[in-house]
Amino acid sequence: MERYAGRVALVTGASSGIGAAIAQALLRRGLKVVGLARRVDMVKENALELKDAPGTLYPLQGDVSSEEGILCAFKWIKENLGGVDVLINNAGICRESLPSTGQTAEWKRILDVNVLGLSICTREAVQSMLDRGVDDGFIIHISSIFGHIMPLDPLYSMYHASKHAVKTLLEGLRKDLVARKSKIRCGEISPGLVKTELFHALKKNTLEVLENMRMPIMESEDIADAVIYMLSQPPRVQVCDIILRPTGDLLN
Predict the structure, then answer these.
(1) 159 annotated active-site
(2) Rounded distance, CA 223 to CA 60, Å?
(3) 4, 58, 156, 159: the active-site residue
(4) pLDDT tens column, 137-176
(5) Are 34 and 10 spatial neighbours (Cβ–Cβ below 8 Å)?
(6) By the 8 A CB rule, do 58 and 81 touch?
(7) Cα–Cα distance, 116 to 66 (Å, whole number)
(8) Residue 251: pLDDT band by 50, 70, 90 thresholds?
(9) What is the dihedral of CA 242, 207, 210, 148, to 10 degrees?
């Protein structure tokens, strides 16, 4: 991780949960962290917990479902920090929507954030690295175990589809970078159940049900640790995917 101390990392969806935990982990290791989120006040509040961290946090308001918003964020980073060296595509949403009766607006929202927003952020970060001759940059997608399996419940079909798309886009990016003879690396983290705000948007009280069933569930810090592991590998090693499950998981 020493090679990234003082470098610029952009973390999307940094206001809570996994994104906040990743931002804090990077700050502890001395990075300049741009925490992009719609609820920018929460990013600032989380920073108060790490007053003595060697890194510097730059809270930035933005919505990854908006291309204009993403481009504005990258413009601000270029003008104020030089560019992005590490991108953590963490922002993501889940909605319950059946394939036979789902609302188009709900499907579009999922794809706008989980697929298109991720793709636009990736494009802009890679271009930022290439333009500045950065050859040790890193792109990490926070995906899901759902990107590796078929839906168990049809309510989450579009969410599954979005995460399968992330996996496909990652391999496309890897081959694109290899063809360019670039040493920029990319990978994804694919966690199972994690205790985050993602559950709050669901109509079912899923988190409460799981806790009542005493189902095993991970914490956001577990995912942040996986990000640090991926970033910590020597330049000759590219960890393409880390699948994390809570111990004792039987759901998938």
Answers:
(1) yes
(2) 22
(3) 159
(4) 999 999 999 999 999 899 999 999 999 999 999 999 999 9
(5) yes
(6) yes
(7) 9
(8) low
(9) -30
